[in-house]
Structure formats: structure tokens, C-alpha cells
Amino acid sequence: MPVALDPDDIGAKIIDGKELARLIRREIRRQVRKLKFTPGLAVVQVGDDPASTVYVSNKEKDCKYVGFHSEVHQMPAEASQTAVIEQIQMLNSCKDIHGIIAQMPVPDSIDGDTIINEIAPEKDADGLTLVNLGNLLINREQTVPCTPAGIIRLIESTGVRIEGSRAVCVGRSSLVGKPVGLMLLNRNATVSYCHTRTRELSSETQQADILIAAVGRPELVTADMVKPGAVVIDVGITIAENGFVGDVDYEDVKEVAGFITPVPGGVGPMTRAMLLENTLKLALAQQEK
Questions:
Q1: pLDDT 10s digits, 180-192
Q2: Catalytic residue among 62, 124, 126, 234
Q3: What are the residue ranges of CATH 3.40.50.10860 in the chain?
Q4: Which of 243, 259, 82 has its CA nearest to residue 165?
Q5: 134/67 Cα distance (integer angstroms)
Q6: Where do you find CATH 3.40.50.720 in the chain?
């Protein structure tokens, strides 16, 4: 049974995203071994952004581990938008590919939203097409964005009850803030959004049973902004002189929160795990047709 938040139980338990992601990958591999076909995931990458290249390489390793067929379609930075669209349309019609992602960022000459929405919704492994985001809005979740899906799983792993909780999302991006807030709302939390124009941010965050920081501002959330016993999910990651830093002042906040994710090792591994899970779901759904 889910547990209620206990403000008297001070000293955060660390939510180990790496371990949870490992367990999810292992379960996916177990399921794939029972299938009579091989799920396929294709990545379309335009240009050679270093961070994207590392991320795509990690996705390939994940696919190999769970037994997926993996393809990376690397296109030059000067590729036209028409050429990228044609590549995606080809993958849409490929029976061996069940999930497709358009790796972001793309060069300025290409409209990323247009590229994403060329992906067939039934192959949208990132859950970012207008159809899948629209289904999220009306509480008909199909394929949901990977990072928000990972956040929900991290919260659920704590045993804390989402239903009836007060959740605050600091950040309103279409990739994380907005969709994770909708997913929490769909699970009967009371949700507030905060952003750069929010007045008295602390007064909002101090009410949160579940606090999600996703704005990309290092150590924005300090201990005095956190309700004792709260679940704190840190999505932000910034490279600083002393290494990676999240949106949460980790060392101070962990003394106040009930549960907290580290940076790195919290949300990041779960994003990749949810991509695999989305792809498997898409593959199974396509086989049923």
C-alpha cells in the first residue's frame, strides 16, 4: 500500500534512478526473449552535436542489452528539412521499425517540431507528437514523453501516494514540466506550475508534497523552499566547476526532504529506460494489428 508523507521523518531517502532503470531494462530483456519478433528502434540524428552523439550511443547500448534491433540514421548538419522528412517517412513505412525518435537539438535550418510530427503517432517512441501530447491532455495516455514517465515511476517507487498529494512543477517546458504536471493531474494530484514569472516562488514550493524542479537553474531550490518530508525530483543538470549540478541544492535539501533524486543518477537513467519501455509497448501494439 502507498504510504502517506510523514513530515516528522526528516532526512531524505535517496531515490536511485540507476538501479530502478537497471531493473526495468532487465524486465524488458526478459519479455523480449519470449517474443517471436524483434522490436526495432530507429534514431534520426541531424548534425553531430557532441552531447547528442553520446546520448545516441548510450541508446544503442541499451537496445543491444535488451535485444532490440537498433538503427541510427546520421544525417549531415546541412541536410534539408525535406530530406529529413523523407527519412522519417521511410521509417514510418518500415515494418521492422516499431519506434522512431528524432534526436534533438537539430540545426537552426530545421524546424524540430515539424520533424517530430512527421513521425507516425503509433511509432512515436518519445511521445512528443501532437497526437500523443493531446491524448495526455484528455487523460487518454498512450505513449508519454520519456522523462515525465520516468519521473512518475521514480515517485511511485517511493511508495508515496500521488492521489490527493499537492504537486508543484517548477518549470513549464513541453518536454518535462507541462507533461509531468498533466500526468500527476491524471493521477489525481493537485498540481501547480511555477516559472520565471511566479511571484514568491518559495511560498508555492513550501506547500508541495511532491516537488519537481525542471528549469535548468543550478541549485535554485534551497532547503528553506522545501516542505519537510516532501518528495523532491531534480530534473536539471548543469556542468559546473565541481562537476554536475542539479536545480536543487542537494546537500542542504536532503536534510529536509523525505525522498530526493541525485544528480546524476536520478532522472537521467530513467529517461533512457522509458524509451525502451515505450518502444516495447509500440512494438507489441503493432503486432496485434
A1: 999 999 999 999 9
A2: 126
A3: 37-120
A4: 259
A5: 31
A6: 145-267
Active-site annotation holds for 59: yes
Catalytic (active site) residue 126: yes
Which residue among 59, 123, 178, 254 is the active-site one?
A: 59
Q: Quick: pLDDT tens for 100-147.
A: 999 999 999 999 999 999 999 999 999 999 999 999 999 999 999 999
d(CA 96, CA 88): 14
Query: Among residues 45, 87, 103, 142, which one is catalytic?
Result: 103
Question: Does the domain made of 37-120 have the CATH classification 3.40.50.10860?
Answer: yes
- pLDDT category at 1 given cuts 50, 70, 90 is very low
**Is 123 part of the annotated catalytic residue set?**
no
Confirm if 105 and 95 have CB atoms less than 8 A apart: no
75-98: pLDDT as tens digits: 999 999 999 999 999 999 999 999
CA atoms within 13 A on the CB side of 162: 20
Residues 12, 24: Cα–Cα separation, whole Å: 24
CATH of 145-267, one of 3.40.50.720, 3.90.1150.10, 3.30.200.20, 3.40.250.10: 3.40.50.720
